[in-house]
Each structure stands twice: as C-alpha cells, then as structure tokens.
UniProtKB/TrEMBL annotation:
<dbReference type="GO" id="GO:0004042">
    <property type="term" value="F:L-glutamate N-acetyltransferase activity"/>
</dbReference>
<dbReference type="InterPro" id="IPR016181">
    <property type="entry name" value="Acyl_CoA_acyltransferase"/>
</dbReference>
<comment type="similarity">
    <text>Belongs to the acetyltransferase family. ArgA subfamily.</text>
</comment>
<keyword id="KW-0808">Transferase</keyword>
<dbReference type="GO" id="GO:0005737">
    <property type="term" value="C:cytoplasm"/>
</dbReference>
<comment type="pathway">
    <text>Amino-acid biosynthesis; L-arginine biosynthesis; N(2)-acetyl-L-ornithine from L-glutamate: step 1/4.</text>
</comment>
<dbReference type="Pfam" id="PF00696">
    <property type="entry name" value="AA_kinase"/>
</dbReference>
<dbReference type="InterPro" id="IPR001048">
    <property type="entry name" value="Asp/Glu/Uridylate_kinase"/>
</dbReference>
<dbReference type="Pfam" id="PF00583">
    <property type="entry name" value="Acetyltransf_1"/>
</dbReference>
<protein>
    <recommendedName>
        <fullName>amino-acid N-acetyltransferase</fullName>
        <ecNumber>2.3.1.1</ecNumber>
    </recommendedName>
</protein>
<dbReference type="InterPro" id="IPR036393">
    <property type="entry name" value="AceGlu_kinase-like_sf"/>
</dbReference>
<feature type="domain" description="N-acetyltransferase">
    <location>
        <begin position="402"/>
        <end position="560"/>
    </location>
</feature>
<dbReference type="GO" id="GO:0006526">
    <property type="term" value="P:L-arginine biosynthetic process"/>
</dbReference>
<keyword id="KW-0012">Acyltransferase</keyword>
<dbReference type="InterPro" id="IPR000182">
    <property type="entry name" value="GNAT_dom"/>
</dbReference>
<dbReference type="InterPro" id="IPR010167">
    <property type="entry name" value="NH2A_AcTrfase"/>
</dbReference>
<keyword id="KW-0732">Signal</keyword>
Length: 583
C-alpha cells in the first residue's frame, strides 16, 4: 500500500513511470513484493519507456486517478489521528541542550546578532593566500566568504598564488627563489607562470562561490581591471622586471559592484595604461584597496597557524592596539638589525610572514582603516572572528583610548570641577583634595581639546578579609566616572570604562563593582547587573556605601577577558576619527 502511494505521488509530481521504478530502491524492503513487481504499473513501465505509447499514456492517466483516491483516503485517516497536546518533556530543545544532545543554537544566534547588524553594508577586504589551497582549507574559506556576503557585508576578495607559482617554476626547472627585499623578481618566464596561476586561482574562486543548493550561485563574483599597476623598476641596482606596484584603485567601479551585492575578486595581475601586465604583491594590494575604499576591516588569512605568543603570560595575544603593534614592529626591526639578534633561531619564513602582515595592518590603520585581523587558516575561522566575542585570530585596532592618561597633581583642579556638580545631583560623597592626592595613582583622566573633560577611578580591594572568608574572587570598584556636560554623548564615558576594565583584567580582577544612585541604567547597558543581596562585598566598600548621603545601589560586572572588551567595542559609538567598528 505504502509503495503504491509513493509511486502515485511521483506520478502526480510529473515523474514518468520508468523513473518511478528507479525509486523502488528508496522504499522499504517489505514494499518490494512479488505482487508489486508483477503489478501492471511495473510491467507497463518497462515496456512503454518514457510513456510515449498510447498504452503508456492510458496507464498513467488511470493510475493518477487511482493515486488521488488513495492519497485522499490515507490523508483522511491520518488527519483523524491528529490532536493538539502539550509537547512531551523529552522532546523540548531545552532538555536536549541540558543533556548535551544539541548545541544551544539560540544562544549562539542571539550572541551573533549584534555583529550581523554592525557588519551589514560595511566594506571588508579579505586576503587569502595561495597556501590555503595546498592546506585543503580553501573551499571552506570560500563557503565562509559566501556566508559573510549573504549576511550583508560587502567583500573585496584578494587571493594570492605564490606557492602555485613556485611549484610551476620548479616543475619547469626554473629558479623559484628569485626574491629581493621580500619581492619577487618577475622575468618574462616567471610572468608567464604568474598569469597561468592567477587564472587558475580565479577559476577556483569563482567555481567555489558558484556552488548553491538551489541551482543558483550563492553569491555573484566580479573580476576585472579594478586597479592599474606600474613597474617597480630598478632599485638598489636590482631590476625587478615585471614586478609591479598598485598605481590606482578604481574605487567607484568597485563600490558600484559591491552595492549590487557582488563579491569583487582581485588577482595579483595589474595592467598599466599602455596595456602591460605586472605582477603585484597581493598583500600590498589588499592593504591599498582597504585604505582607498575606507574599509571597516582588513582581514588577512595567515599562511599557517602561527600566532603571537606572550611568553610571560603563557597565552596567545588576542588583540593589539595600534601603538602596541607599531612598537612590536620597531622591536622586530631592532632585533633584525642587531648583530646577535634576540631571535634564536632566526624567524622562519612563516614567522616573518606574520610580522610582515602586522606591518600591513599597522600601515592600513594609520591611513584610516578601522580594524585589521589576522585569522588562522582553519574551518570556521573567519566566521568565528567576525561574529563571536571570542574570535579566532588576532585583532589590531586603532586606539580609542588615546585621550586617556593617568592623573597627576596638575589635574586635581579639573577633577574637582568635574565632580562638583554631581555631588548634589546624585548624592555623591564629596572627594576631599587630600584624599584625592593620596589616591592619585587610582585615577585616570580624559583629555580633549587640551583640557580634562572626564575622569574615573579604579580601586582594588586586595587582602580584604571579608572576601577571603567567603572565597570570593578578586574585586575592584569603578568610581567617580564623570564627564563634563558639554562633552557628554560622545563616547568618552564608554572609553573610560573600557580602559578601567582593561586595567582591572591586567591586574587579575574578575569582578567590577560600581556604586551609583543615578547612573544605574547606563551601567546596565554596559554589562552590569544589580548586585544580589548575598553578593560578596569588601568591607571597605560597604563602609563607603554607608557614608554616601543616600546609600546608592550596587552594580556588579563579571569580566570576561580583554577579547570580550574588544567585542563590546563593536557597539560603541564614539564620535570623531577614532570611532571603531568591531570586531
């Protein structure tokens, strides 16, 4: 019975009888009985082929009518058995998650939603090296690029082919290491190989992005002469041949295709106005495109899984500020210049490649790109880096804390001026100048337009017996966070809070406390919650709370590491040139 219903469904869908027979293998074994095999449907199907004979057409028409009747009868019986009941407990998603039988997709989706919103309609330049094809990760990366594009980001994809060029040169018995100053010397034979490899990688990109489950391409790709090139020429007595540099980026043409929803794909081949082709470094091309397009992100997928390691802390470096990255590059230059440099042994090619990529990131950020990322070549790396708090690689960002510094005695009058109006408005306890001088190391100030416009303090509670007795984690208090009225709503308060959170994390603090009577909602919007009655509080903090004119309300925030702050900065809206767009 079930087998006949299945075949009738296929007939109703327009399948010819011989095709329906091919579907027998999908039915249960019990359905393949002698009665089925001897039915008129099977016999007539084998004879009438595609149903072009008159006998085939009459059989098909009769069985369609029979199928309709059988389906209506079957559906009627099924509908009679249906009723609305409470969902059985063992079938709920919550129970399945508790048992570990399924990932908490809802929580993951909710946590990714802010990043999806913030990345929509923003321009990203993504560089993928040719090594990813050799590692077998290339198609996974293309799937991620397609997904990022479908989520609304505007993507310029720059794909290298250096290892493919080296392999083809070697297969032809030509030298593969004709490099000077990190740049390939491209002679006519090498240029011919570069053309072939660039074309090959372009086809790989387009075929990977063309895959779709509905028969349509996941995303549309566009390639072409979106930049012009010029020769490197002769430098330090070395003729670089057909090696080139970016001369001009056709930003309007690229923006037009990005606005249409296309992924713009660039290779290492650039043409001069005279029609000569040059071999351009793709890492440099990606950086210049990001700058010219005013991209929110420049993303480099690394050649391998090398990362920046903090030997003293014993963990990978997840984020760097622009100043830190620039200082790191200077240190590397000094090490390289030293006769007995600190590198023992010297950096491997892949290690040096990471340093070079950091250099491209620093230069791009200095010229206006908001954020840069180094992402390892792993399945899911791009998605995790862009749409999760933890990320998968290393983030380098412009310094939104540039105006913040530690307070010094010259700042005391300005701090008192900022806090004075809040003493009466919110019931803050007056800060005595003597106490402020004694605790000056705990204070930071925000300077703008050559004057102090904001301040805050971070008090650590170390060795507190009341905390130790309850086994509580280390605690610090954010206090006196205030901004001059004329400078509010510019993100200065957010920057001060983020800076103090980074200071607290660096000192091993896991919980932040705040006492306020009028800024509770502002704190809640930044991750704080109202402290529970049984919250472990330092004795000194409780004493200060009692000394306040109206007691105030206690708020607490569990710190989640520096990368968590980096992720939160995505939602910040800080005016001016230092407005970040994370992640």
């Amino acid at each position: 019975m079930k087998a006949k219903v299945a075949v009738c469904v296929l007939l109703l869908l327009g399948c010819e009888p011989n095709f329906a027979l091919l579907c027998k293998s999908l039915l249960p074994r019990s359905a393949r009985s002698a009665q089925w095999q001897g039915s008129s449907v099977a016999r007539s199907s084998s004879k009438c082929g595609t149903g072009t004979s008159s006998r085939g057409r009459s059989l098909r028409a009769s069985h369609i009518e029979e199928g309709k009747s059988m389906i209506e009868s079957w559906l009627g019986a099924r509908l009679a058995d249906l009723e609305i009941v409470p969902r059985p407990a063992h079938l709920t998603a919550a129970v399945a998650r508790e048992k570990g039988n399924m990932p908490n997709f809802l929580d993951m989706f909710r946590s990714s939603a802010p990043y999806i919103r913030m990345h929509r309609a923003t321009t990203m330049v993504i560089h993928i090296p040719g090594e990813t094809l050799e590692l077998g990760i290339f198609n996974y990366l293309m799937d991620e690029v397609a997904l990022i594009s479908m989520l609304g980001a505007r993507i310029v994809l720059v794909v290298g082919c250096r290892p493919q060029v080296d392999a083809m040169l070697a297969s032809r018995g030509l030298p593969t290491q004709k490099l000077a100053g990190g740049r390939r010397i491209t002679d006519p034979e090498a240029l011919s190989v570069v053309k072939q490899c660039a074309g090959y990688m372009r086809f790989e990109v387009e075929s990977a992005l063309a895959r779709g489950r509905t028969g349509d391409a996941l995303v549309q790709t566009t390639g072409g002469n979106f930049f012009s090139a010029q020769p490197v020429g002769v430098r330090s007595g070395i003729d670089y041949g057909y090696s080139g540099e970016v001369r001009r980026v056709e930003t309007e043409k690229i923006q037009e295709r990005l606005a249409a929803g296309d992924v713009v794909h660039l290779t290492c081949l650039g043409f001069s106005p005279s029609g000569q082709v040059f071999n351009v470094e793709t890492e440099e091309l990606a950086r210049i495109c990001a700058v010219k397009l005013n991209a929110s992100k420049l993303i480099y997928v690394t050649q391998g899984e090398e990362c920046l390691w903090d030997r003293s802390a014993g963990h990978t470096v997840l984020s760097l500020r622009l100043r830190e990255a620039a200082a790191l590059l200077e240190l590397q230059r000094q090490r390289a210049a030293a006769a007995d440099g600190d590198w023992r042994p010297p950096p491997s090619p892949r290690q040096q490649a990471v340093v070079d990529l950091i250099g491209h990131c620093v230069e791009a950020l200095q010229q206006g790109v908001k954020r840069a990322h180094l992402v390892p070549p792993v399945d899911g790396g791009l998605i995790e880096e862009l749409y999760t708090r933890e990320g998968a690689g290393m983030l380098i960002s412009r310094d939104i804390y540039e105006g913040i510094s530690g307070a010094d005695p010259a700042h005391l009058p300005s701090i008192a001026k900022i806090l004075a109006p809040l003493t009466g408005e919110f019931g803050w306890a007056p800060v005595k100048s003597t106490a402020l001088e004694q605790e000056l190391d705990a204070w930071v100030v925000y300077t703008k337009d050559q004057k102090v416009v904001g301040c805050a303090s971070l008090h650590l509670y170390e060795g507190d017996e009341s905390l130790a007795a309850r086994g509580a984690t280390s605690v610090a208090e954010v206090g006196h966070l205030a901004v001059m009225e004329a400078y509010r709503a510019q993100g200065i308060g957010r920057a001060l809070l983020g800076y103090l959170e980074r200071m607290a994390i660096a000192r091993g603090v896991e919980r932040l406390l705040a006492l306020t009577s009028g800024g509770g909602q502002w704190l809640v919007e930044r991750g704080f919650t109202i402290a529970k009655p049984d919250e472990a509080l330092p004795a000194a903090f409780a004493t200060r709370r009692a000394a306040s004119q109206n007691g105030g309300r206690v708020y607490v925030k569990r710190l989640q590491g520096v990368r968590g702050i980096d992720a939160d900065e995505l939602l910040w809206d800080i005016g001016g040139a230092d407005a970040p767009r994370k992640k």
